[in-house]
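To: structure desk
From: M.T.
Subject: fold request, one chain
Message: Could you run this one when you get a chance? Sequence is below, nothing fancy, just the single chain.
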Amino acid sequence: MSKNKRGKALWRMPSRSRGTCPICGSTRIKLLYIGKSADGGKLDVCKKCDGKQAV
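Reply: Done. Structure tokens follow.
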């Protein structure tokens, strides 16, 4: 059976949760993960940069 509710929460987020990753610089990518900035704050990062810390 198909899953008709998959990804529905993304449609409520601003710009469908897409943007430019602050760590790797990839554009139009989903920013669904939480990363750490150099000063200890939180950043929205892509899947590739999940677990990395910004310099």
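Reply (cont.): The chain has a mean pLDDT of 91. Let me know if you need anything else for the meeting.
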